[in-house]
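Q: Convert this sequence to C-alpha cells.
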Amino acid sequence: MTPHQPPGRWYLPQWVNNSNVYSKSPQTISGDQIVWSEELTSTNYEIYHSSWIYERSIWGSPENISNTTNNSTAPQVTEADDDDVSDPRYLVTIWCEDDEVLYEVRKDKRLLPNPRVQYYIDLGREVQSPFTVERDSFIAYGLEDYKNVDCDPIELIYRITGFEDEYEYQIKFVFYHEGNASLKLKMRIDNVVFNSGWVHPYELKTVEGAIPESFITDGEIVIADTAAQGDHGVLSSIIVCKRPKRQYGGPQMLLDMENKTRAFSIQPSIVNNNAEIHYQINSSSSINISIFDISGRKVKTLIKGNQDAGYYTLNWDAADDDGKKLSKGVYFIYFEDQKETFTKKIVIVK
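A:
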C-alpha cells in the first residue's frame, strides 16, 4: 500500500479479517479492495469483502456478501463500468455456490467510492517518500501506520506530479501527533493557503478539499506544511483522488501546432543553486521569459528580445534582477512568444 518502501523489504503483515477461522482464496483489485472465502462452519463458507481505509491505514470491517447456508468459494473480482454514472467504479465479485446437489455461479455488484485514489503517500518512514522535497526527520508514535509522521521544525515540503487536464482532483491531508501541546498548522499549495487549523495531541485529523484547476495546469503541485504555532509541523499521509471532468459539446477542433514552441523544460524543477531552462522555437519570434513570485511580482527577466528558430538553453542562478538569491518557495517561469504563452512552476529550496 505504500509506494516508497526500499526494494526487497516488506512491511509487517496486516490482518484483514481479524478472525481465527479458516480463510482462503483471497483476491484483490486496485490494491484497496479484497474478497476471500471464510469458513463459518464445516459445511458453510461465505464470501467476505473489505476496503482499505486510507486515513487510518487499516482494512475496514469485513462484510459478508454471499449470505447463504451453503459453501461459497473460489471468488474472483474485477471492475465494471456503468454509462449512467460519471466515472463509475463497480466491484464485481463472482464465486461458486455449492448446495450439495450442484454448483452455481453467483455474482455481486456494488458501487465503490468515487473519486478513486491516484496517490496514497504514506509518510513517517525511515526512508523518505520520493515525493518529499524537505523534511527534518520522522517520528514513530506507535505500530499503527497513521501514527508514523514526517516532522520538521520549520516546514515540510512535498512535490506531486502527474496531473492531467482531463481530470479534476481532490486532496486529503492526515495529521497526528502525541506532543504535550496542540499544534497550529498551515497547509499551502503552490504558496496559496489551503487550510489552517489545530491538531491536538492523540487526535487523528483529516483536512480535504478540491485542488483548483489553476494549480495543476503545469501537471504538478508543491505542498508546504508549516508550524504556524508550535515547535514543528507533522504529516502522516497525503491522499490524492481523481475523477474525469464532465465533457460538454461535440468534438473539439485540433490546434495547428505549426510554428509553435515545441519544447520547454526546466532541469531540475526543484532548485538549490542553479537551473537550466531548455526551449525550442520553430520560427523567428519575439521571446519573453521571466520569473514571478507567488504574488505575481516579476523578480527576474531571463530574456526579452528576438530569437531565430532553434534550440536554446538558459542558465539561472536562482537570483533576482539585482543578483540577490531568492528565498525558498514556489516561483513561476513565464514564457511568451508571438504565438503562445504558458507557465511552469519551479521550487527553490535551501
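Residues 117-244 form a domain with the Jelly Rolls fold (CATH 2.60.120.260).
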